[in-house]
Every structure is written in C-alpha cells, then in structure tokens.
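Risk register update: the risk of archive-format incompatibility is retired. Evidence:
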Amino acid sequence: MLGFRIAIGRHYEENYLLDDASGNLKIAGKLLRVRNTPSNKTVTFKGPISADSKLKHLTAIECRIESAKTMITIFEEVWFRIRGGYSKYRTVFDDGKFNVSLDETEAGNYLEVEGPSDEEITRLGEKLGYSEHDFVRRTYAELIGDAKRKSSPDS
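Archived output:
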C-alpha cells in the first residue's frame, strides 16, 4: 500500500521497568527498562518526554545485552528493583524512510512511528487516517496501568 514491508515479524516482548526504592527515576520522568524478546535482549534508559513537541520526543540510550535475567540481577545488586512492567506483541514495518511498529498491548493497539522529521511523521499519520489529536505521548506503562485500574472491580 504505502511501500512498507515487514522488517521484523510479530513477536512477544517482556518489558521490566526498574527504579530505586524511592522511585527517583519515575519522579524525574525517566525510565530504566530491560526488554526480553525471542531474538533480542536490551537495556534502555529513557529521559523525560520533551514538553515542547506534539510528538513524543525523548532521549533514549539503548544497548544489547546477553541475558535479561542477568542484567536485572546486576541492577538488583545496586538497589534497583523491578517496579513495573508490561508485555506486548510487536510487528515492525519499514519502508527505508520510516520505522513503524504495531504494538498490541493490554491497553489497546498502537503505532509507534520513527521517521526523519515531525512534519513527515505527521504527514504519514494523515495518510494512515490519523490526526495530531490521535497522537499519544504517554508511556505504555502509564496506558496499561490506567487500563488495569479501569477494569478493576474496585474502581
């Protein structure tokens, strides 16, 4: 349709969010994540989401690791603990210019788009039938947490 091909087929991802006992990363709008997929394991630091953009801009530093379990153990040895997490199914599409991930989560399905500029990402969104009103700047942990609270019998 728009020239996209499947770059990485549908796969299951487990995401573990770590923080110290006081929740200092969360308080600062930052995130430390260990991700486990069938073919890839990563540790990622994400900085706060930029307030001056309609899209979700943030600093992300990521590297591959050999073992998600071992990385979590190392963090636990320096007083970080798993404070949350989520899982999802992801399919990645590419057209040489954009990288588009279809994420199937407990909170619904989302497209994550990486591209050359905000303007081009917005134009691609419009071609796909979305407007800036549809863009989501929240994290999956926040979205899934809200969905779980709404579906809880105590709410």
